[in-house]
Design goal:
Helix 1 packs across helix 8 and helix 4 runs antiparallel to helix 5. This protein is about 55% helix and about 10% strand. The longest helix has 25 residues. It has a 5-stranded parallel β-sheet, with helices on both faces. The chain is built from 8 helices and 5 strands. The chain has about 200 residues and is an alpha/beta fold. The chain has a single domain, classed as P-loop containing nucleotide triphosphate hydrolases (Rossmann fold), CATH 3.40.50.300.
Length: about 200
């Protein structure tokens, strides 16, 4: 009897700007192996990168609802063009940002609404779904101290980032296969916490 081909796993790292997503995503890719695909969202396709540039540019002004639709569009393209074929080929995927970001920023902090955002994302960009989403939880004040260049979202007032942080925690509490990870401490300490969550998810 022929063995069923291994399907790849889809891991997402998400959290506030400055929480250490990129550092931890790169570490996770190395830990999982050279065949692992590292993506960022929005982006990772030609269409997605153009949408990313539009979303992150302070001009032109975009309403929160329009932002939500653009994020969903870029995500659908990435899932169809890159993620689904990679998983089917048996390779793992690590992606920086996904649904939790849109929920926290647009759904909660910018007032589009939790239910409206979740309904849109799961209907139009729900498959393939992440094997596990890891939300790196860090106090907004600490995240702000780590941030570098500013874009449409990073330049907002401190209270905005506090609402975003709460949005991420609400997402972790609401959505299955989502783990909240303490992002304080050294990169090694955070990486160890992430790996524990992956081991727990594999059980």
């Amino acid at each position: 009897m022929q063995a069923t081909p291994r399907r790849g796993r889809f891991f997402v790292l998400d959290g506030l700007d400055g929480c250490g997503k990129s550092t931890q995503a790169a570490r996770l890719v190395r830990a999982l192996g050279a065949d692992t695909l590292h993506l960022r969202e929005p982006g990772s396709t030609a269409a997605g990168e153009r949408i990313r540039a539009l979303l992150l540019d302070p001009e032109p002004a975009l309403t929160p609802a329009a932002q939500t639709l653009l994020f969903a569009s870029a995500r659908r393209q990435m899932l169809d063009e890159v993620v689904a074929p990679t998983l089917a080929a048996g390779r793992d995927v690590v992606c920086e940002r996904f649904h939790a970001s849109t929920f926290a920023y647009q759904g909660v902090a910018l007032g589009v609404g939790e239910e409206r955002v979740l309904e849109l994302l799961f209907a139009w960009a729900g498959e393939p779904a992440p094997t596990l989403t890891l939300v790196l939880d860090l106090a907004p004040e600490l995240a702000r101290a780590r941030r570098g260049a500013r874009d449409r979202f990073e330049a907002r007032e401190p209270d905005f980032h506090r609402r975003v942080a709460e949005g991420y925690r609400r997402y972790a509490a609401r959505v299955p296969r989502t783990a909240l990870v303490d992002a304080s401490g050294s990169p090694d300490e955070v990486a160890a916490r992430i790996w524990k969550e992956l081991e727990r998810a594999d059980r």
